[in-house]
Amino acid sequence: MRKVFISLSIVFAIIAALSIAPVFAEGSDYKCIEDSMPRVIVEGVGKVTAKPDEAIIRLGIVNEEKSLKKAFQHQTEDMNKVINEIKSLGIQDEDIKTISYNITPKVKEGPIWWGKRKPESFEVSHMLSVKIKDLSKIGDVIDTVVNAGAISINGLEFKSSKIEELEKDARLKAAKNAKEKAEVIAEGAGFKVGKVLKASEAMGGHFPVYRERYAKTAVMEAASAAPEIEPGSIELEATCTIIYEITQRK
């Protein structure tokens, strides 16, 4: 009985192998056909430049007091003054937003054996992001907020309200550039460009950013003229990699 059982097991294994083999063979043949399909891989580049029409400025106030209540109070008074001055320049509520609000206890440094110590003071910092849609007002905004009490202006970034349109134009240029390259290569080899088999894209660019930190000083308080800021230009670059099928010319 044992010999019969072993023989039947071998027979079943052979039948299973024979039934599976055509499937693998068919898949392998299909893969070979795909790999042998004539194709050309090209990379296209599309560049777009534009003048920015918006600016984002980040500014803040820091208050330090022995009492947390007083630090809160002075912070609120100072920031409300700054916000009111910003609004007086025509900046809308929706273009002013808080990006950070921090409370930091200040403890005197000392040896570790001093144990747990109470804070000697409290620092309250409040940072705002302000969108400026009229670029001619940038200098006035900086001058106004500094005189109103802002002690730091950290980062000035230029943007475009038409960024989606600019990105679309860059992608179209990249795709056109890729197809032109494919047609030149295919023609030189005696082929013509067929359908797209695969495509991928990436977007990059340069947005003018000024990261200098302005601090409130006697010199700035005494300045009679607002600083002049040059926005420069926005540069976008799209790249795409496209695989085209190519066929013999008739």
UniProtKB/TrEMBL annotation:
Any GO BP annotation: DNA damage response
Keywords: Signal
Signal sequence range: 1-25
Pfam families noted in UniProt: SIMPL
Source taxon at top rank: Bacteria
PANTHER family: PERIPLASMIC IMMUNOGENIC PROTEIN, SLR1258 PROTEIN
Designated name of the protein: SIMPL domain-containing protein
Native source organism of the sequence: Candidatus Aquitaenariimonas noxiae
